[in-house]
Amino acid sequence: MTALSLKNINKSFGPVHVLKDINLDVEDGEFVVFVGPSGCGKSTLLRVIAGLEDATSGEIRIAGEQVNLTPPSKRGIAMVFQSYALYPHLNVRGNLTLALKQERQPKTVIEERVVEASRMLGLEPYLNRYPSELSGGQRQRVAIGRAIVRQPKLFLFDEPLSNLDAALRMNTRIEIANLHRQLSASMIYVTHDQTEAMTLADKIVVLRDGRVEQIGSPMDLYNDPANRFVAGFLGSPSMNFLPADALTPGDPREMGLRPEDIRLEGGGPIAGTVTHVEQLGGDTNVILQTARAPLTIRLFGQHAIAPGNDVQFGYDPSRAYYFGDDGQRLRIE
Amino acid sequence: MNKARSNPLNTYAMHGALILYTLIALFPVFVILINSFKSRKAIFREPLALPDAESFSMIGYQTVMKQGDFFLYFQNSLIVTVASLALVLLFGAMAAYALSEYRFRGNTLMGLYLALGIMIPIRIGTVAILEMMVASGLVNTLWALILVYTAQGLPLAVFILSEFMKQVSDDLKNAGRIDGLSEYTIFFRLVLPLVRPAMATVAVFNMIPIWNDLWFPLILAPAEETKTLTLGSQVFIGQFVTDWNAVLSALSMAILPVLILYVIFSRQLIRGITSGAVK
Question: Among A62, B184, B214, B228, which one is least packed by beta carbons within 10 Å?
Answer without folding.
Answer: B184
